[in-house]
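Open question from group meeting: does this chain pack into something compact, or does most of it stay loose? Before anyone orders reagents, we agreed to write out a predicted structure and look at it together. Recording both the input and the output here so the notebook holds the full record.
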Amino acid sequence: MEHGDTHTPEQVLRRGIEYYTELFLFLLAAMTFVNAMGERQVFLVLSKALVSRGGSLRRVYWLIPALFLSFLEPRTSPEPIRENVDLLPGAGVIVGLFVLAIVMAVSVEHFLYMPAVLGMMTGLGFLKLYGYHLKRQQHATGTQQDSFDIFRSLEHAEWDTLMFFYGIILCVGGLGTLGYLGLLSESMYGDLGPTTANIAVGFLSALIDNIPVMFAVLTMMPDMNEGQWLLVTLTAGVGGSMLSIGSAAGVAVMGQARGIYTFFAHLKWSWAISLGYAASIWVHFLVNAGRFS
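C-alpha cells returned:
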C-alpha cells in the first residue's frame, strides 16, 4: 500500500482460498467415501480375509521398507477373526463409485482441462443419490438395523486435518508473494541442481507435510524436464512417510491409535522407510531414464 499497490494482497488471498477450496472439497469427498466404505464393513472384511489365510506377520508385511521390517517381526501368526463379518448392503456399489470418482477426477482435468475436484464432487453426488436409494430400500423392507447415512460418513471426516491445510496454504502463498520461495528456489534448484533439490524435497515433506511442500514447489515453478517433475512428485509423496507427521495419513493414525502409534514409535523404523525411499528413486532413474533429456 505504501507503493500504491492495493490489488496484489487481494489477488494472492483469493488465489490461496481458491486453491484451498479445491483441495478441501477433494479431500472431503475422498474421506467421505473412505468412511462410507468403513461403515459398510469393507475394510473389516478385507482385514478378516488377510488374517484368516494363516500367513505369518512377516508375510503380511512385505514392500521394500516392510520387507526389512518383516525380518524383525516374530514368526507368530495374527489372531484370526472368528466372528462372522459380512459386507453390508451396497458395499460393492460404494467401492465402485469411489473408483468412478477417481477416474472422473483424472478425466475432467486431463480431457476437459477443469479442476479435478469436479470429478470427486460429482462422485460424492452419486454416493448421496445411492445412499438415498439404500435408505428407501431399507425402509421398504423394514430393515433399519444397518441403515446407511451419508451425512454420518461426512461427519467423521478428518476435520482437524482439513483445517490444518488452510493455514499452511495461506502461509505458503504469503511466503511466495514476499519473495522467500523465489530465494529458496534459486538456492536449491540453482545451486544444488534439480536432482539434489528434488531429493531434498522428500526430507522436507517428512518435516512439514507433502501437500504444502508440493504446493511450495509448484509456486516456485523451477525450470525442469519431465523426469525431474516426476521425481519431485515421487519424493514428496514417499519422503513424507519417513516421519509420522509427514503425511495426513500418519497424523490421522496417531489420533486414532493414541499411545500405540506415536511419533517415536514411527521414528524407530524410519531407517527402513529411508531405504525404501532411496530404492524408489533408483527405480525411477532406471525406468524413466529417457524422460530426463
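Observations to bring back to the group:
The mean pLDDT is 86.
The CA atoms of residues 66 and 229 lie 27 Å apart.
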